Amino acid sequence: MALPPSRPLLWHPAVETICALIPAGEEVYLVGGAVRDAWLQRPLRDIDLATPDDGRPLARRIANALHGAYYSLDPERGVGRALIPWKGAQLVVDVAQFRGPDLLTDLQKRDFTLNAMAVRVAGDLQTVIDPLGGQHDLAQKRLRQCSPTSIADDPVRALRAVRASLTFGLTIEPATRESIRQAGPRLGTASTERVRDEFFNLLDARHPAGALRALKQLGLLAQIISQTEAMQHVAQSPPHEFDLWNHTLAVIEHLDVILEIISPTRSPDLTTNIQLGLAAFALDPLRPALQEHLAHEWANGRSHHALLMLAALLHDSGKPAVRAIRQGRIRFWGHDQVGAEIAETVAQTLRLSNDELARLVAIVRHHMRPLLLHNGPTISARAIYRFWRDTGPAGVDVCLLSLADQLGTYGPRLDHTEWQAYLDSVRALLDSYYFRRETAVAPPALLTGQDLIQHFDLVPGPQIGSLLERLREAQVMGKITTQKEALDWVQRVLGKIS
Prior knowledge:
The chain has helices at 13-20, 33-40, 56-65, 103-108, 134-139, 150-153, 157-168, 174-183, 192-204, 208-217, 221-224, 244-262, 274-283, 287-294, 304-314, 319-322, 335-349, 354-365, 369-375, 381-391, 394-410, 416-435, 437-441, 449-456, 462-476, 483-497, and strands spanning 2-3, 29-31, 46-51, 69-74, 79-86, 89-97, 118-120, 128-129, 142-143, 171-172, 324-326, 329-331. By secondary structure, the protein is an alpha+beta fold.
């Protein structure tokens, strides 16, 4: 039954443009997230259309008419995609054939009632077809599956339920929640790639710590990353405020806020907290560079933000395996190395790209480095050089994670003076990377391996690399600035060796 909506639908201007391309006699409907977002009056991200026939020809027509690109997404299900340029951005328009003989069957086979509304393109765009009560559920802030088997039919929908509830501020109604719990053990029957991508969507959404809490409570997290089970109820000695699992969630919460402080859309309200205000002041000169770093996309468009949240989830994952009590205190010596091994296993299980795997492992492996440097007498030029030599671009992520780690360790007990000192230490590392790169991180080569072979009658081998590395350290320490000084330095070193 088609009825006026319970509130006005707010459509993106592109919708009317696309509707004008479709003759009145064609049975085509706006469906799913497009109708939901129009009802919620949220910015439109994608446009989904449904039709009784193969959707690919219509998708191609839309792409051609609006000078976009066309792709055949799913020939068996008759799904086509048009990528439309629109005012400097790109809109995704998917056209799919009904999942069944008619529109009602198609809507009944969808996941949740908020996604099971439709608007006929050729009709009044303020008339909603809503057979399952999606508008009422949205008004009641309720997430409800379309049928008792909606989640059982596709266990990945359990992850989508968590994301929808957090994104739209909805409570999952009891029957749907029970279906999610029952679907957990069946996540393994779905493709790893689909589970991974939905999991990354959760890490990339608002409140990733809340998403992880929900996944844990619903029995889903252990199905995705089994290693998180060992992290539960692991006590830690002071200065830790929380046990291991709650510390991890606190670190993720703080990291999310730190990334928000860095973002171009930072809310002024964030900096009213003194700890966050000090962090904002320390990081402000680096914001453009950090924004560029965080904007990186990995394989298939996976965000760096999500990968960094995964690193935060795993940064202390090695602690349960090495936990020991020494002199009355709980110790976790070597947990960074064990955690890096776990991170590698998780990356392989999730089928991340090799580059993602390498970055994830590097962040977890080196996450303690800034704290260890800060706790030393001074952060020397050699120490800064070795930090960036060992971490590369992952060192930026390590620095950001270490700030969140400090906040997550001390909680509200963190002394403001100590926090400022730690910010200064991390800022010194980042300043070296971004503002003093040639003198502190990657000094220009004064000699090459071939120079060493020719001048000192050496043979190719590990000695060449070792000499060049020691030479770079001498450069960043200010001991060598010219090629002649470099040659003299090598001569002295070789003389000592001989």
